[in-house]
Specification:
Blueprint (H helix, E strand, L loop, with lengths): L1 H48 L5 H4 L6 E6 L4 E4 L20 E7 L3 E11 L5 E9 L1 H52 L19 H50 L4 H32 L7 E5 H18 L3 E6 L4 E5 H17 L6 E9 L2 E7 L34 H11 L3 E7 L3 E9 L14 E5 L1
Parallel strand pairs: 7-9
Antiparallel strand pairs: 1-2, 1-5, 3-4, 4-5, 6-8, 7-13, 9-10, 10-12, 11-12
Helix pairs in contact: 1-3, 4-5, 5-8, 6-7, 7-8
Length: about 475
């Protein structure tokens, strides 16, 4: 960058100096020529008027020299300050207009010369030679050339120094970014995370914006890596328990011959553990498809209240086993356009959690309501509730705010994460209100795609209890 910059500046400076020097070298002789013509004009007019006068011989003007020549180039008159004739290389009998050139007076005095042809009153051809010294102008041009030759390398050195300073200063943030990125690359395997903010020298220039972009990128990558590690750890922990149970039961069965009853009992244990493994694997598959944006929905018209009835009927046996009543409140039929299987799974997750974390003999309220284009399905339990410190994390995978009252681990800690993925895939959301020791209310908010049929006059509010 420095070499390129200095080369460009050097070419521009050299071109500028040459242009100025050429302009001066052209303009100075032109000015002298005009001065010579202005000086010669009154003298020529005077000679034409008085052809026999000896005015040129009487002239003694400092810095101006005059000669009057005949058509053959012989000196007829010359000024008093001119000791020797002016050597004219440009002079010839065929000169028809003013001719300008250079000459030397004496041994070392350079002069600018103008030869002006004219005719006297008797039609005789005459030439007036006017000369002025050019030592000052030549010295000025020489001085300018010397100054240009001196300033050019100095300008290049100064430009190189300034560019080195600013280029080094500009590259310093890049060097810091490179070193910092290399340090983070070495810390990728750190379980506590590898990301620390990159230094931002100036947040408003290109490098500052680049560093901030990398900060956002690395922060997202670090968060994703930590979540992936935590996910793998939790998944392996969840899978390890049923696998350990299956391995223990298998070793116990193979240790000695068993009765048919003992084999049947072991098979029941196998069936339960295989069901847990199946739920975990299916949940992981659902979440992976949702993360990849490939959770395909088979959308079709349906009534949300009918899907709720089926879900409540499915969990009613588990609720009766713990004397929990499921109270469903429905004020109208609600039409919806979506995936019935996923919507059914979504309701089952919240009903199952409500039963799991509720005390025996309590109630679970299921409410369906539609206002304008929003459908709200609420599941309210009277369980142990969730404290405020746990609420921001309840939708994370394998996160449990508290153990269930009966010690069950159904859904493997994936239930709410799957519910959120399904709700988002349906274009909806999930709201949660909870008070520790009192209970929780989860509300699924969906957008109605088909206008609901108004049956409020035909179908009064119903309250159905599954006990």
């Amino acid at each position: 960058m420095m070499l390129l910059f200095c080369s460009v500046v050097g070419v521009l400076l050299a071109g500028s100096y040459l242009a100025f020097w050429g302009l001066l070298a052209h303009e100075v002789p032109a000015q002298l020529n005009r001065q010579l013509l202005d000086t010669a004009r009154p003298v020529v007019a005077d000679i034409i008027t008085e052809s026999n006068a000896q005015d040129v011989n009487r002239m003694d003007i400092p810095g101006e020299f005059f000669e009057l020549l005949d058509s053959g180039g012989h000196v007829l008159q010359h000024s008093l300050n001119l000791a020797n004739p002016i050597a004219l290389k440009e002079f010839g009998p065929s000169v028809s207009g003013p001719v300008f050139g250079l000459a030397v007076l004496g041994s070392s005095q350079p002069v600018r010369v103008a030869v002006i042809p004219f005719q006297q009153a008797d039609h005789q051809q005459r030439f007036l030679v006017v000369a002025i010294p050019i030592l000052g102008t030549t010295g000025a041009l020489q001085s300018f050339r010397n100054v240009a030759l001196l300033l050019l390398p100095l300008s290049l050195l100064l430009t190189a120094g300034i560019s080195a300073f600013f280029v080094g200063r500009s590259l310093k943030p890049i060097t810091a970014l490179t070193q910092h990125a290399g340090l983070m690359a070495k810390r990728v395997t750190n379980r506590q995370g590898f990301w620390t903010p990159l230094p931002v020298s100036s947040p408003h220039d290109e490098l500052g914006r680049l560093a901030e972009t990398f900060n956002h990128l690395l922060q997202g990558v670090d968060s994703a890596v930590l979540q992936l590690r935590q996910f793998v750890t939790d998944a392996s922990h969840e899978l390890r328990t049923p696998i350990a149970v299956l391995q223990g039961e298998t070793e116990l069965l193979l240790s000695k011959p068993r009765t048919a009853e003992e084999y049947q009992k072991a098979l029941h244990v196998f069936d339960d553990e295989f069901k847990k493994l199946t739920r975990i694997v299916e949940g992981l598959f659902t979440l992976s498809m949702a993360d990849a944006g490939q959770l395909h929905l088979e959308c079709e018209p349906m009534y949300v209240n009918e899907v709720l009835e089926e879900a409540c009927a499915l969990v009613s046996s588990r609720a009766r086993a713990r004397s929990i009543s499921i109270v469903r409140e429905l004020n109208q039929e609600v039409a919806y356009f979506g995936d019935e299987a996923f919507l059914h799974q979504l309701f089952i997750i919240f009903l199952d959690n409500a039963i799991k974390y509720s005390a025996d003999g309590t109630q679970v309220h299921v409410t369906l309501d539609q206002r304008d284009d929003l459908i709200r399905v609420s599941f309210e339990d009277q369980g142990i509730g969730i404290s405020d410190q746990h609420l921001p994390f309840i939708f994370e995978r394998f996160y449990r705010a508290a153990p269930s009252s009966n010690g069950e681990t159904h859904s493997g800690g994936l239930g709410l994460a799957i519910a959120q993925a399904i709700a988002r895939a349906q274009g909806g959301s999930i709201e949660c209100r909870s008070t520790a020791g009192i209970g929780s209310t989860f509300t699924v908010v969906l957008h109605a795609a088909i206008p609901a049929k108004d049956n409020t006059d035909e179908q009064p509010k119903q309250k159905l209890i599954f006990s």
